């Protein structure tokens, strides 16, 4: 598989093209489309999936490989005598649970597998739901329970000789094998298991694609079919984007709050946006502006009435904070906002997530450390910029996954691009978004324009 992104466990990659929106315009969870792609080893399953994903141009696709679900080979087993092509080599229970959880929009942990050591790696990948979930693997259509979770079942039918030739090349180059070992394994296990278990799965397929990724016509037809199935389910990305771009600055939805553009606020922004501003000044004015933003954000927290007695023995009818408040810092940018937050909110617990975009500007979760959220928690999300809105969506989704209600989330950002912030609001209409500035443009490279450049680089000086 081409390494367009993500986590590489030696040769196989869990491809997650972007992250999910999960919700329709009314905030309801959408049903993702689950596709199973089966076929012999090196038939081109992964290559076909990649082509379909590229053609589809849907934002949220998860491509899982059955290889991630190989059971641990017994310690005393000889890899040369072990049948990796038998159904018993796979953890079907985990596969079924994973696909079923993903269908429900739940977060899942996917094991990583190493073909060189024939074992699971200690770390897992965290994957969130998607519009389209694809499971590819030699026996992905073998289990009825798994098939029942699939909306479209595909079999890639590539000539045996072609597959063997490709496998030889790949296994020697990428999986640390010798010519002899590949041929031995092929004759002893791969070919017999193909005949006994894999080929019989063809009868379950809705679509059979001869010649794998060479079959451009079949791939195009499949893409169109998936598109129409997605439309039936209410995934209308193009329409949504068009509607969003038609929203004018005057019709900004009520949960997007831009702080009052006083001269003082404009002056701070001017310093932050100026390319000649020194790091010292950038940090100073960032702290100042973020403090004001956070104060404004906190006005959305629930308060209760409280009466206190003043030192001159009079009652004062005041207010007290009426909830537990946490913060979620979206690293690295969010760390620029932590100091002013700690100065305002004594002892606040700050969770951290590291979300980084790949070369296709798709966000991926690399790290999370979270406090114990509850349905009563209110959370301030700290991220100084909202560009495309994709990583912001992911941060919100993580909170929802941990039981924080959407209405209890307040997203605090210094500068947001119009499109990104509208998209975030579209996905999560109840999240309050508090920003200091709303910029009109987003460049092809994903930079907010006019923007302030890379916020954390300017803050930390690198
Ligand atoms: N149409 C093709 N022409 C040439 N090589 C291909 C083609 N499709 C796949 N390959 C190569 O064959 C190997 C296996 O392809 P892959 O798509 O990973 O198959 P699978 O997922 O079924 O094992 C890879 O090294 C890939 O680059
Ligand atoms: N430790 C392992 C595990 C699996 N295999 C072989 O991988 C093939 C499945 O992967 P594809 O990408 O080709 O679908 C399967 O045929 C196993 O023989 C292995 O060699 N070693």
UniProtKB/TrEMBL annotation:
Which organism does this record belong to? Tieghemostelium lacteum (Slime mold)
Its protein name is Uridine-cytidine kinase
Q: Which SUPFAM superfamilies match?
A: P-loop containing nucleoside triphosphate hydrolases, PRTase-like
- Output one GO BP term: CTP salvage
In this chain the Phosphoribosyltransferase domain maps to 260-461
- Where the record annotates domain Phosphoribulokinase/uridine kinase, the positions are 34-217
Under Enzyme Commission nomenclature, its number is 2.7.1.48
- What taxonomic classification does the UniProt entry list for its organism? Eukaryota, Amoebozoa, Evosea, Eumycetozoa, Dictyostelia
Matching entries from InterPro entries are given as: P-loop_NTPase (IPR027417), PRK/URK (IPR006083), PRTase-like (IPR029057), PRTase_dom (IPR000836), Uridine_kinase-like (IPR000764)
Q: What class of enzyme is it?
A: transferase
The record's listing under PANTHER family reads: URIDINE KINASE
Homology family: Belongs to the uridine kinase family.
- Report the GO molecular function annotations: ATP binding; cytidine kinase activity; uridine kinase activity
């Amino acid at each position: 598989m081409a390494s367009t992104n993500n986590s590489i466990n030696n040769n196989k990659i869990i491809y997650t093209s972007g992250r999910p929106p999960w919700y329709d315009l009314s905030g309801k969870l959408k049903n993702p489309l689950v596709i199973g792609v089966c076929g012999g080893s090196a038939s081109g399953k992964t290559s076909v999936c990649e082509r379909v994903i590229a053609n589809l141009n849907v934002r949220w696709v998860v491509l899982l490989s059955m290889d991630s679900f190989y059971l641990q080979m017994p310690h005393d087993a000889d890899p040369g005598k072990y049948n990796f092509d038998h159904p018993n080599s796979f953890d079907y229970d985990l596969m079924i649970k994973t696909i079923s959880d993903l269908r429900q929009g739940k977060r899942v942990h996917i094991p990583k597998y190493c073909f060189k050591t024939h074992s699971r790696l200690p770390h897992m990948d965290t994957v969130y739901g998607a519009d389209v979930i694809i499971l590819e693997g030699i026996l992905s259509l073998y289990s009825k329970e798994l098939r029942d979770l699939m909306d479209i079942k595909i079999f890639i039918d590539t000539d045996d000789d072609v597959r063997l030739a490709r496998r030889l090349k790949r296994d020697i180059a990428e999986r640390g094998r010798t010519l002899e070992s590949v041929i031995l394994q092929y004759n002893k296990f791969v070919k017999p298991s193909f005949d006994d278990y894999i080929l019989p799965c063809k009868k379950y397929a809705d679509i059979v694609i001869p010649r794998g990724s060479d079959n451009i016509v079949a791939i195009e037809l499949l893409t169109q079919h998936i598109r129409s199935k997605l439309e039936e389910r209410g995934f209308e990305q193009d329409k949504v984007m068009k509607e969003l771009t038609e929203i004018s600055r005057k019709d900004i939805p009520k949960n997007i709050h831009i702080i009052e553009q006083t001269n003082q606020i404009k002056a701070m922004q001017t310093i932050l946006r100026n390319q000649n501003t020194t790091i010292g000044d950038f940090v100073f004015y960032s702290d100042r502006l973020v403090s004001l933003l956070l104060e404004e954000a906190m006005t959305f927290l629930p308060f209760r009435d409280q009466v206190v007695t003043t030192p001159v023995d009079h009652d004062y009818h005041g207010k007290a904070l009426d909830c537990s408040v946490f913060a979620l810092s979206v690293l690295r940018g969010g760390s620029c906002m932590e100091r002013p937050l700690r100065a305002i909110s004594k002892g606040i617990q700050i969770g951290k997530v590291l979300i980084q975009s790949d070369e296709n500007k798709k966000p991926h979760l690399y790290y999370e450390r979270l406090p114990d959220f509850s349905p009563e928690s209110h959370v301030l999300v700290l991220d100084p910029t909202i560009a495309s809105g994709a990583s912001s969506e992911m941060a919100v989704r993580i909170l929802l996954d941990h039981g924080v209600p959407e209405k209890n989330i307040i997203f605090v950002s210094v500068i947001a691009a119009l499109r990104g912030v509208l998209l975030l609001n579209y996905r999560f209409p109840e999240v309050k978004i508090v920003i200091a500035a709303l910029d009109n443009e987003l460049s092809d490279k994903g930079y907010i324009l006019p923007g302030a450049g890379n916020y954390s680089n300017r803050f930390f000086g690198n």
